[in-house]
Amino acid sequence: MRALAKPRLYAVVLAGFASFAVTIAAVGLFGVLSHNVAQRAREIGVRTALGARPSDVVRLVLRHVVLVAAAGIACGLWTAYALSRLLGTVLYGVNPHDLASFAAVGIALAVVAAVASVVPARRAARLDPWQVLR
Asked: Residue 14 CA to chain centroid, in angstroms?
């Protein structure tokens, strides 16, 4: 049991840092998207005044989310792959270049990005063009 104490501590600490990092990423993405919607409020108001439906506005915001999230996930996965040899000594039962682990992380971060984009997209769809264009 004592032989597993140090690896268990490493696993708990890494899991804590990972969950903190995902939380920070979600809050940061939410902030960036909210700021982007606020910056583009006039454009969205003009689009709405010219006949854009709320679904079109949501699609516009989500398209931006997909581009930002895909670029971030791709850069992060590439960096993680490049630096995975450094963590290879603390991984037990997992290959440092395990494709399933990288895919799971990419999918999890895509889900976090989707959840973080719901509120700004709905806020953009509910913008009143007359108030924005004043």
From this structure: 19
d(CA 120, CA 30): 7
DSSP string of 87-129?
HGGG-SSS-TT-HHHHHHHHHHHHHHHHHHHHHHHHHHHT--H
**Per residue in 9-52, pLDDT tens?**
888 998 999 889 888 988 888 888 889 888 888 888 888 888 88
Distance CA 84, CA 91 (A): 10
* Pair of tokens at residue 113: 């990005």
- pTM score over 0.70: yes
User: Nearest CA to 107 among 69, 75, 65?
Assistant: 69
In angstroms, the Cα distances linking 112 to 22, 34, 39, 65, 115 are 8, 15, 23, 11, 5
Would you give the DSSP letter of residue 4? G
Task: Write the burial class of residue 105 (CB in 10 Å: 0-12 exposed, 13-18 middle, 19+ buried).
Answer: middle
